[in-house]
Amino acid sequence: MTFSTPIVxxxxxxxxDVSAKIGLLLLAALIAYGVAKLLLVRAAHAFAQRTKSKLxxxxxxxxxxxxxxxxxxxxxxxxxxxxxxxxxDILHNAIYAYMAIAVILxxxxxxxxxxxLYQTFDVSNRRPIKGYVQLIKLFIxxxxxxxxxxxxxxxxPWGLLSGIGAMTAVLMLVFRDTILSVVAGIxxxxxxxxHKGDWIEMSSxxxxxxxxxxxxxxxxxxxxxxxxxxxxxxxxxxxxxxxxRNMSESGGRRIKRSIKIDQSSIRFADEALIExxxxxxxxxxxxxxxxxxxxxxxxxxxxxxxxRLNGRRLTNIGLFRRYAVEYLRAHPEINQSMTLLVRQLNxxxxxxxxxxxxxxxxxxxxxxHEGIQSDIMDHLLAALPEFDLKAYQxxxxxxxxxxx
Length: 404
Known about the structure:
Elements: H1 4-12, H2 14-50, H3 54-61, H4 64-68, H5 73-80, H6 88-118, H7 123-126, H8 130-153, H9 157-165, H10 168-174, H11 176-190, E1 199-202, E2 207-214, E3 218-223, E4 228-232, H12 235-238, E5 242-243, H13 245-250, E6 253-261, H14 271-277, H15 284-301, H16 316-329, E7 341-344, E8 353-361, H17 366-383, H18 396-399
Antiparallel strand pairs: 1-2, 1-5, 2-3, 3-4, 6-8, 7-8
C-alpha cells in the first residue's frame, strides 16, 4: 500500500511521464556524446603519437574529433523514438536534420585543419588559400541549410533549389561584396600581387604596414603604429597600392635624398682648395687625373690664363659631387650592384641647387635602412664647408613670415 499510490500518480500523469522520458533520453544522448568524445580523442591522440604526419596533430588541435563525437547521440535518439510513437515521423526527420548539422560542423573543422596544415608550408605566404576555403565553407553552409530544411519539411531539396533560383537577383545583391572578393582573390593569386607578410601601402584606406591575414572578404594590415586596417579584398582591384616585397627580395632599399646647395657659394676651385682636397683619400686620385686632363686640354687649345672663364676649370660643387660618389662607392653598406649616382636637379631660386643622392642600401629593414641613410646625409652635410659650400637655408625675412 505504501508504494502503490506514487505508482498510480506517475502512470496517470501523462505530462510527467513524457518529461521523464525526454529527460532520460537527453541524459543518455549526453552520456553517449561524452563517451564518444573521450574515446575518439584518446584514440586519435595515441595514433598521432605513433605517426610522423602533421595532419593528425593539426586535426586534433582544430577539434575535429570532438566535433565528430556529435554524431554519437544520433543512435540514442533513434532508439528513443519508441517512446514517442505518435511523433515518430516528425522526430525521425528531426534526427536526420541533426545528423546533417553535425556532418556540416565536422566538414568545416576538417577544412580548418587543412588550412592550418597548408600554412605550415612556405608556399602558403605566396599562395594563401584561406579565402578559397572560406568560399567552400560558404557553399557547404548554404547546401547544408537547404538539406536541413528539406529534411524537416520532408520535401526534395531540388524543389527548394528551384525556389532559390527565383531569388538569384536578391542573392546577387546580398552577396555582392563576397562575389567581388572572390574575383579579386583569384586575380591577386594569379598575378602574384599580395602575400601574407608583405609590406604594403594603400593611402586611400589608411594602410601602411605588414599584411597579417588574407581572407575571402578582407585583407588585414598591421600598420607601423600597431593598429589594424581591414581592407575589403575587392578594393585591391580598383584601388592602387604599393607592395614593397620586391624591394625586400632585391637585396637593396633605395635612398633618394637631396641636399640643397646655396648657389652663392658655388665657385671655381682655386689652388688652395685643390691642394687641401688633394689630401682627401677619396678625392686625391680623381683630382690628379682630372687636373692633368684639364691642363692638357687647355694647353692644346691655347687658353689664356688671364681669366678663369677661359678654358676648363674644376669647381667646388663638381669636386663635392665626385666626393659624394666615391664616398658611396666605398661605403660597406651600399649595394654596389645597383644604381648609384649623385646628380644635380633643376635649380630653383627659392630652394637652392638640389644635389640628389640616389643609391641602395644593402639592408632592407626599416630601422637599419634609416640609420644608414641618416649617417650618409650627416656626413655629406658636414663635409660641405670643406668644399667652401653652404647648405641653402631660406631667409625668414624674404618669406615675409618673420620679423627682424
